[in-house]
Amino acid sequence: MKTAPAKQVYDKLLSVYGPQKCFLEHMTPFQLLVATILSAQCTDKRVNMVTRELFQRWPDAESFASCGREELERAIFTCGFYRAKADHILKAAKAIVEKFHGELPGDMEGLLQLPGVGRKTANVVLGDALGQPGFPVDTHVRRLAGLIGLSGSSDPEAIESDVCAVMPPETWAQFSHLLIVHGRTRCPANRPGCAECEIADLCRHAKSGKEKPSAKKPAVRAAAKSAAAKKPAKKPAKKPAAASSPAPRKPRKPNTKA
Ligand code: SF4
């Protein structure tokens, strides 16, 4: 299957959005690992709110490895799935202390040995904290890769492999960020804004003519709403003359003045 020209998509998105930074706040590679674990099924905004306090209490792998499970669960509760996430963080922190002398492994192979760390998390840490090539495939990247036609597969590992095969390694992390920001702003799930999209001429979905005018629906609905709002309120209907019997006239007083 013919794939979309990835480099042209990258260049266009870079010119539209400019260089993007990691959305998760962190001071060290380990902190980014923790933030990425917390970000599963949670917004970056919420994660950043939680980690600002979290990293003051437990700044590194040693302190996380010795913190109480219940205390950690309470601290990350608002990120959702707090039991599983606390479990992954504790196990990863302990493994880093016991197997890697407190230092985060610096390559994909080592990172994948940590409990709860998959390729997406490892690629985030590699690309955004360790200065190495990394192309994280999250839900936005996966969806957009399919729509645009960057890969013929829906499997994250195959998408990573397809994109990395045609893009220079120094662009991988940035390309992932750009696809994420485009997915959030122009091409959200189920309502891609193809009519206004800056990469429509490069996108397989747009070129296939299968796009539905779903992006226009909200606008159409909004226009309909505002039109309805502008309509003058209906005047109450006049009672039909026949239906209303005339009020009985008061008898006129006879003129008693002479
Ligand atoms: S053209 Fe449509 S489907 Fe393709 S990236 Fe743009 S908004 Fe998404």
Distance N to C terminus: 112 Å
Mean pLDDT: 85
Q: C-alpha Rg, in Å?
A: 30 Å
Helix content: 40-55%
Strand content: under 5%
Task: Give the CATH level 1 class of the largest domain.
Answer: Mainly Alpha
Q: What count of structural domains?
A: 2
How would you describe this structure in keywords?
single chain; 258 residues; mainly alpha; Endonuclease Iii, domain 2; Endonuclease III, domain 1; 13 helices; disordered C terminus; binds iron/sulfur cluster
Describe the structure in your own words.
The protein is mainly alpha-helical and 258 residues long. It has two domains: 1-21 and 133-189 and 196-214, Helix-hairpin-Helix base-excision DNA repair enzymes (C-terminal) (Endonuclease Iii, domain 2), CATH 1.10.1670.10; 23-128, Hypothetical protein, domain 2 (Endonuclease III, domain 1), CATH 1.10.340. The protein is 52% helix and 0% strand. The longest helix has 18 residues, at 82-99. It is elongated and about 55 Å long.
Secondary structure layout plus pairing:
Layout: H1 6-17, H2 29-38, H3 44-57, H4 61-65, H5 69-76, H6 82-99, H7 108-111, H8 119-128, H9 139-148, H10 156-166, H11 172-185, H12 204-207, H13 216-230
Helix pairs in contact: 1-11, 2-8, 5-6, 9-11
